[in-house]
Amino acid sequence: MKKKALITGVTGQDGAYLAKLLLKKNYKVYGTYRRVSTPNFWRLEYLGVLSKIELIPFDLLDQSSILEAIQLAKPDEVYNLAAQSFVGASFEQPVATGEITGLGLTRLLDTIKNCDNNIRFYQASSSELYGNVAEVPQNEKTPFRPKSPYAAAKLYAHWITLNYREAYNLFAVCGILFNHESPLRGVEFVTRKITYNIALIKNGLANKLVLGNLDAKRDWGYAEDYVEAMWLMLQQEKPKDYVIATGKTYTVKEFVKRAFKYAGLDYKNYVEVSDKYLRPSDVDLLLGDPSKAESDLGWNSSKTSIDNLIKMMVDSDLKLVEAQKSSVNIYKESNIKLYDHFKE
Questions:
Q1: Is 297 domain-assigned?
Q2: 126 among known catalytic residues
């Protein structure tokens, strides 16, 4: 009999890759999406899985829609990837971020507890929890020091997941995932902003790239590798939380240099820094220690190098912009989102 999985936030980067993985493992996959005027299914279409999953309208602010999704899917596993996912936006919408990312998750956990406490549950935690880091590298025992409304909401979600695990004996785990990127990343995230603007520059559609803090250090991996770790966590005998990372860190400037070099460009001719893109409070250094995941889960933290990740993203954006350029009337405007379907 097929296992059944419910993925909240299936239209996002991680949700789409996870749906693809679970389908390969012969799961019946259900995915949730928000009812909007223009549903955002392009990632699922890109991976060729849209027609293979069952889609359910869903809202973390609406307990009845959560209950309906659980009753309809009757899942063996639930992966909660739905959230307000952009750190920068959380400063502009702190209350909404808390409602969706924190309290929304609590509604979901409480529904699972009341409907079927045999469901195995995965919560997407974040390396942003570490904030002003207490130690380097960060592992599962490193204290959390969140520095944004996004991270604070994620911290609440992290601890409430542990609370439900201990209080109600739920198989509930948190994956503390460090930055993970792909061609499916939204263009508001810095890595995709870089590779997308490189494609615009190469095609004569932009002449500069404006960024914020170039000195911030991040541990960047490949999203498709990271969703495998999510699945592995729910296959274990006992529920445990894991750091998922590469164990290597690079500055934003280093990512920029490598991406422009791969495209045959000198970043110094195109990159500008603006205070407009600086956050009120930023995290300076993130570096994860994936040794526990490697040991317990058999997960490979070095499967995709940063150079291969950059190559993949630049190549994808070059193809995309070239295709759009040939079929759409595009005006030469720098540093704008030219394609609506990129929006999260």
A1: no
A2: yes
Helix (H) or strand (E) holding 272: strand 271-273
Q: Name the active-site residue from 65, 85, 126, 148.
A: 126
**Residue 32 clears pLDDT 60, i.e. is over it:** yes
Question: DSSP code of 183?
Answer: T
Residues 112-134: tens digit of each pLDDT: 999 999 999 999 999 999 998 98
Full DSSP string of 148-182: SHHHHHHHHHHHHHHHHHHHH--EEEEEEE--EE-
Per the annotation, the verdict on 168 as an active-site residue is no
79 & 134 share domain: yes
The pLDDT score that the predictor gives to residue 297 is 98
Question: Which of helix, strand or coil describes residue 242?
Answer: strand
CA dihedral 188, 181, 191, 206 (to 10 degrees): -70
Number of domains the chain is built from: 2
pTM for the whole structure = 0.91
**Bridge partners of 33?**
57
Q: Do residues 124 and 157 both lie within one domain? A: yes
Residue of 77, 128, 181, 224 with catalytic role: 128
Residue 225 shares a structural domain with residue 268: no
What is the Cα gyration radius of the chain? 20
Say yes or no: 139 and 198 in one domain: no
87 pLDDT band, cuts 50/70/90, is low
pLDDT in tens, 214-251: 999 999 999 999 999 999 999 999 999 999 999 999 99
Specify whether 150 is catalytic: yes
Tell me the three state secondary structure of residue 281.
coil
